[in-house]
Amino acid sequence: MVIYGTALLAFCMLVGLVIGQLLGITLGVGKNVGGVGIAMLLLIVLSDWLRRRDRLPVPTQQGVLFWSSIYIPIVVAMAASQNVVKAASGGWLALVAGVATVLACLALVPVLSRIGSNAADPTDSPPGDKA
Amino acid sequence: MNCLPDWQAMLLSKHSLVVLLEKNSLITALFMVGAILWVSSVISRKLTRGRIHASAIAIFMGLALAYLGGMMTGGEKGLADVPLLAGIGLLGGSMFRDLAIVATAFGVRLQEFIATGLSGIISLMLGIFVSFLIGGLVAYAFGYRDAESITTIGAGAATYIVGPVTGTALAASSEVIALSVAAGLVKSILVMILTPFVATRIGLDNPRSALIFGGLMGTTSGVAAGLAATDEKLVPYGAMTATFYTGLGCLLGPSLIFMIVQWFV
Prior knowledge:
The complex is a heterodimer of chains A (131) and B (265).
Chain A: H1 2-27, H2 35-52, H3 58-69, H4 71-80, H5 84-88, H6 91-114
Helix pairs in contact in A: 1-2, 1-3
Chain B: H1 7-12, H2 17-23, H3 25-46, H4 54-73, H5 86-91, H6 94-104, H7 110-115, H8 117-141, H9 147-158, H10 162-169, H11 174-198, H12 207-217, H13 220-230, H14 235-264
Helix pairs in contact in B: 3-4, 4-11, 4-13, 8-9, 8-12, 8-14, 9-10, 9-11, 9-14, 10-11, 10-14, 11-13, 12-13, 12-14, 13-14
């Protein structure tokens, strides 16, 4: 049944959020720490376990796959409900801080990717400021 | 002529079409988003010959509509503040977004995460510190000299949630907190728009670099949309690290990072 897959997904998300909340309380932060990430790990482990025991028939998988395939529409709705006006009205300080941070962090992606990966990649090019 | 219904009156009447759409706002939103994606795919194919991803165009259209919605209503939730389109806020809110993000992890191999675990943690730490550093330096350059304001604006450069949480904890002024939220929003929107264009230059084409990208950027909405517009397969990796970022930022901002800033000021 399709709902089994969706219920599995919902279960993972709820457990993840509860653990994330407990982690947040333990650390003294008023926020959920990594709940979604923990839920993702849980889903990976559980679905792998079910698959190996042959307990993951196609309809069950569809119950999860629907939600991952609806991801982009949800992200578009998310973009449409952002406070863009406020971002645009924050003045120069907000703009400069935002732009400088994004450029610096983008530039660090290839640097960190190289560290720890033993495969030397000759195609690394200097990070861009192409906007 | 007389047998035809009075369409104009029906459209304007309080108890008709508009109310119907408002009542079914989530369904209206599903249709609306479908329409946006369809228009985007046509633009992508016809105007850019497939060079710009349809999802990148759709996300950009979403942001533009959010700006319009915000201007029209004066609200904080973009297009979702238009009563007719309130469903957009539900569909794009954190509940469905997080469910969809978790769902993207389905079918991912655990080994791929474990193999990149350490670089994920390093990228998270580095991402938080670099954001605070640059945000703080910009605050200093704009004339802020007290540790509370510098830390709060630095926190905003991390994410628009870390900003107000840190600012409130440090009792920063409301003007500074508002600035930190604005800086975080600029960052998040910029990551959405910029990522697909710089992806190849920064080597963002494999799970490992996506994981590092998520940790460095940290803004869940920015990373979620940026990766969606680049390559959908990379989404779970970036989202995984990014979801730890805000919590860690809220932990480090008012404590360790504030102490470091105090020491410098």
